[in-house]
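User: Before I run my own analysis I want an independent prediction to cross-check against. Here's the chain; please return only the structure tokens and, at the end, one sentence I can use as a sanity check.
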Amino acid sequence: MTRARDRLLWVFLGVLFFLSVIPCGCRTRCPIDVDETFAKALRIWPGIDIPDSIDAKCDPVDWRSFSYPQDVKVQVTISFGDLFKAHSCEGEIGLYSFEGNLLDTRPVVPQTRVYEFTFTAQKEKSYYFKISARKGKSAYVLRAEVSPIDPCASCPPERCCKEAGLCCEPGTVCKGKECVPADVCDPPCGRGFLCVVGRCEEACPQGCGKGYYCDEARRACVPTSPKQKQVIPEKPKVETLPRCPAGKTYNPKTGQCEGGGSNIVGKVIEATQTGKGVEVIINRGSDHGVRKGQTATVGGYQFTIGTVSATRCKATIPNASADELKGKTVTIFGD
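Assistant: Structure tokens:
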């Protein structure tokens, strides 16, 4: 009786051992997962094919990270399985920013082999790919390519410094290879020109007709005086000065033709139409003996010298036209 009991005990223990050993012997051993969290993400090197695999049972999640020492456009391609052959994996690929925000996501299905992600990577910022499988398994190849960013892709032409590789801030323009304030021109613009986004432009490119002048601030031709409904007076008759022999000039003060030794001859270098007549600048001044108040003539008009500088003098001639006086010879009479 004791032997039978012992035999039954040994059989029972043997069955227990068999039941405990058999399942362990058939269980699949999974390799150690080294990239199952973003903190363990393996680096993506541009221009290199990186092979890996994913398995819903043993290796359900892979994390990969990408960064670059400058701003670039990035294209990442992840190819599952073999060429022209469907794989058996179902899952998802997610792209995350360095702040942890989801930028893009794609479902992984057996009918699709290649998945492409394109994004702009900021200098030295990390971006993460989470590749997960919920069913099946597959090998895959990951490859990243980078290309420089066009700094002027969304930049106004005047702010684009392509050679310097940058887009100037609002309120500045590109000049040479640097950004300068938009309202500064170097060298400064001359008369009749305005500084527009760092470049000199004509205020009135088409010019202004008779009776109008260019308002540089408005960049428009405006009348020299407000338009009024009135009778335009007849142009006064110009007194014809007597002809004098060669070498002599008529002096209206004395009414005589006098020798030209004390007279000064110059030329109108600038004539501007104003509401009072024509303002002329003559290329003679105090260095040539000109004094304020002297009488002078030009083109049949008699007038009085006003402001005098060392090499220039200025006067206003009523009832005259700027077009007919510009470039004319002026005679300034001596005392």
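Sanity check: The chain has three domains: 38-148, 157-223, 248-332.
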